[in-house]
Amino acid sequence: MSKKKTEATSSVHPPTISKKTYHDTLHKLQIELVKLQRHFIQCEDKILIIFEGRDASGKDGTIKRIVQHLSPRETRVVALGKPSDRDRASWYFQRYAPYLPAAQELVLFNRSWYNRAGVERVMGFCTDAEHEEFMGSVSNFENMLIRSGVKLIKYYLDVSKAEQARRLKDRKMDLLKQWKISPIDEQAIKHWKAYSLARNEMLARTHNPIAPWTLVRADDKHLARINIIKDLLSRLHYADKDKQLIQPDPQIVFPYDVSNLENGQLAK
């Protein structure tokens, strides 16, 4: 990329955190994540983190930084592909059950059963009856997991329409990001409003005190990553916690409330 092009891009998207501050903070937070892993292995905890959000909202990059220095034996990232014919003929949650965490494990879902509330709903990959059945049963399913000892945390990463378009275009130009391109990407901007409505319904109907949603303003990917990790660390118990370090910015990461849909905190 030429210097002129780089300067133009920077003026449109000025950094809100310096690279040095970002990398220094990330390093410290990853040390805290190692402390967390040591604790949940000793205590035989079962931790499940769900990442949802629009295409190109930063789920991949966030998950990569969380697991980067953790033990792969006790850490798993789950990103399921298109359901098979057998999956479609089974109980909807059945294909996800084998990937749930056992004791001493941290599992991160890069998209999850909430596909049915998002892309399947918008793209017509499920019927209205299937969507309604999911909406009526998902909270009971999650409550059952929590009663069994699973520590469940749900994040929804939100980006503006302009930022999503920029990132999707960047994928096409960057040879190292070709694996991220999918046919669904082409529909993301076209169906922007439909995705917004599906997101709003999903949040309103599946947020509850036992399994709440946490929202992330993710236009700045560096700030989003750092604050998600801070929020995650602040929610889970482990020894020798650096409490001052892990305080998330409430302007970046915040609990879902119905007012979020009207006060401009979520992209419309």
Reported for the largest beta sheet, the result is: 6 strands, mixed
Strand content: 5-15%
Radius of gyration: 19 Å
Number of domains: 1
CATH class: Alpha Beta
Taking all residues together, what is the mean pLDDT? 92
Count of separate DSSP helical elements: 10
Q: What do we call the CATH homologous superfamily?
A: P-loop containing nucleotide triphosphate hydrolases
Structure description:
Helix 3 (about 60-65) crosses helix 10 (about 220-235). A six-stranded mixed β-sheet has the order 2-3-1-4-5-6, with helices on both faces. The protein has about 270 residues and is α/β, with parallel strands linked by helices. The protein has one domain (about 45-260): 3-Layer(aba) Sandwich (Rossmann fold). It has helices spanning about 5-10, 20-45, 60-65, 85-90, 120-125, 130-145, 160-175, 185-190, 190-205, 220-235, and strands at about 45-55, 75-80, 105-110, 150-160, 215, 255. The protein contains ten helices and six strands, in the order H-H-E-H-E-H-E-H-H-E-H-H-H-E-H-E.
